[in-house]
Amino acid sequence: MKYFYLEPEVSGGLGDDAIMDTSVHPPIVTRLHYEFDGWLDDVMVASFPCCLVTEYLKAKFLTAGFSGATSDKVKVTTSELFEEMQPDVELPPFVWLKVDGRAGHDDFGLAEDHRHVVSERVLDALRPLGISHALIEPF
C-alpha cells in the first residue's frame, strides 16, 4: 500500500482554553480548543500539533475501519476575523483526530518530523469529501 504525507488546511489555531505541555516536543495537548480564523470548506483542518475532522468524516472513518487514530471532543470557536470575513458561514461539527499510529504501517501515523502520514485508502476516502487545500506528497 502507498502512504502519503498529509498537511491539512490551517484554518486557525489553538484557542485560549487549550491545555498543553510545551516543555516537550511536540507539545502534549490534553484539552483542545480550536479557534477558526477562516475556513475554506475542507473536512480536515490542523494547527500543530493537532488535527480536526468533521463528525461526518469521523463516521466514514469508523465505517471503513481505519487504523492509527481515535477521536475526542474539541471546543470550537470563531475569531473576530472569521466573523468579519465569513459572517454567513456555519461550521459543521468537528472532532479532534488523535493520531497514534505508525507511519507507513497504520492508516494514520506520524512521521519522525511529526507530519501526518496517511494510507492511500484514507486519501481515497478524503478526496471526494473535500481536502483541496491540503498539501499531499509521497511518504
Q: What is the number of strand segments?
A: 13
Q: Give the overall average pLDDT.
A: 95
Radius of gyration: 14 Å
Low-confidence stretches: none
Structural class of the helices, strands and pairings?
A: alpha+beta
Strand content: 35-45%
H/E order of the elements? EEEEEEEHEEHEEEHE
Helical segment count? 3
What proportion of the residues is helical, as a percent range? Answer: 10-25%
Domain module tally: 1
Shape: globular
How are the strands ordered across the major sheet?
Answer: 11-12-1-13
Task: Please tag this protein with its features.
four-stranded antiparallel beta sheet, 3 helices, 139 residues, alpha+beta, 17% helix, 38% strand
Q: Can you offer a commentary on this structure?
A:
The chain has one domain. It contains three helices and 13 strands, in the order βββββββαββαβββαβ. The strands form four sheets. Strands 11-12-1-13 form a four-stranded antiparallel β-sheet. Strands 6-7-10-8 form a four-stranded antiparallel β-sheet. A three-stranded mixed β-sheet has the order 2-5-9.
Quick structural overview:
With 139 residues, the protein is an alpha+beta fold.
